[in-house]
Amino acid sequence: xxxxxxxxxxxxxxxxxxxxxxxxxxxxxxxxxxxxxxxxxxxxxxxxxxxxxxxxxxxxxxxxxxxxxxxxxxxxxxxxxxxxxxxxxxxxxxxxxxxxxxxxxxxxxxxxxxxxxxxxxxxxxxxxxxxxxxxxxxxxxxxxxxxxxxxxxxxxxxxxxxxxxxxxxxxxxxxxxxxxxxxxxxxxxxxxxxxxxxxxxxxxxxxxxxxxxxxxxxxxxxxxxxxxxxxxxxxxxxxxxxxxxxx
Length: 247
Fold this sequence. Notes:
Mean pLDDT: 76
Helix content: 40-55%
Number of domains: 2
Radius of gyration: 43 Å
Largest sheet: 4 strands, antiparallel
Low-confidence stretches: 3-9
Distance between the termini: 106 Å
Shape: flat
Strand order of the largest sheet: 1-2-6-3
CATH architecture of the largest domain: Alpha-Beta Complex
Order of helices and strands: EEHHHEEEEHHHHHH
């Protein structure tokens, strides 16, 4: 048994699948309660002497419970706007007959779908907030009215304090966290105002930098001149053999 929400204006749908009763027999009971109010349908199903009345009564009660709990609808204002019985898969059995024959027996199943709707449609009720949720909403509204302050973490701090628990250490942890972040931001600002970043800004503006690049000739002059850096010669072929052995 499955409960679903129908998007096409019918609020509550209940389904019963793979019922081990033939759909022809289930339709006899479904035709009795189609279009009736919920209270009339329950009385009819209680006093009907059919095999399909018990599963259909159980399906109707589950649809009423779904309408009451999930959609906040009143039971007295509900009626069965639609009920359909479709054929499900068949279970096949065989009976031995004369001259070695086997006759097929079909055990039919049915799928039942039931729709509930309101007799007099009413606007939906507004959900009430708890006291804790209302306080959080008020604090967030105050933050929005005050606007964003100079510190980039001010609004986040107020929201975290609103969501903090009543323990005396919760608010202290929140303030310590944002104080550390603000210290890091101040350090980054100091580094930006230092000489390294100042030279980069001058370069972007088009003015010459204070530190000029050394030319290739100056770099060559910086190398030590006293030490001779010559690569060893590699001897190949027959000369290499004669160099090793004396004949």
